[in-house]
Amino acid sequence: MSMERLLKNFSERSSRRGVLELLSNSLLVVLGYGVAKRMGSVPVVFASQCDNTILCGIYGRLCTDCGGSLSGCPSGTQKGSSWSACCADGKIYSYVDCCADGQNCSSAVTCHNGPPQPAWCQADLVYNCTIVLGGTESCSLN
Questions:
Q1: CA–CA–CA angle 9, 14, 16 (5° rounding)
Q2: Integer Cα distance of 21 and 29 in angstroms
């Protein structure tokens, strides 16, 4: 694959904010977690936590930091609506918001790999975190 094609693919899947976030997180890794924590940058989002291929379309907090799992909402929450993305592994993944009545997991790692999404919760519920489902259907990035 040519460098031009790689850069085009990267630019189509990235935003300026995402690139700045990646660069700042990389800098925090270089400076060390302790320094970052003292600077008030908690939670520190290390790039590797959001770089998993199946997280290509996620825009939200990982439920793994909120008492849930990558594919399971935390107890006390319920699934909202979802959106989907075709990831680099050629599979379709769905991203489902987990919602609760007044409960908010604001300390979780936040990944902005996909396009911005509204909170996909019912009007009376609060966004908590996002899970990933699927990976069984094939797709094409062409």
A1: 135
A2: 12
Kindly give, in sequence order, each residue whose CB lies less than 8 Å from that of residue 8, ignoring residues fewer than 6 positions away: none
Model confidence at 129: pLDDT above 60: yes
pTM of the model: 0.65
Phi, psi angle pair for 136, to nearest 5°: -105, -20
At 84 the three-state DSSP class reads: strand
User: The domain containing residue 86 runs over which residues?
Assistant: 3-138
**And the tokens for 66?**
């909120």
pLDDT digit string, tens, across residues 48-101: 689 899 999 999 999 998 999 999 999 999 999 999 999 999 999 999 999 998
27 token code pair: 């800098």
Structurally, the chain folds into a number of domains equal to 1
Return the structure tokens found at 124.
């009376």
Q: Which residues contact 49 (CB under 8 A, 6 or more apart)?
A: 62, 109, 111
CA distance to 9, 88, 139, per residue, from 2 (Å): 11, 17, 22
Domain CATH for 81: 2.60.30
CA distance 112 to 71: 18
Can you tell me whether residue 37 is helix, strand or coil?
helix
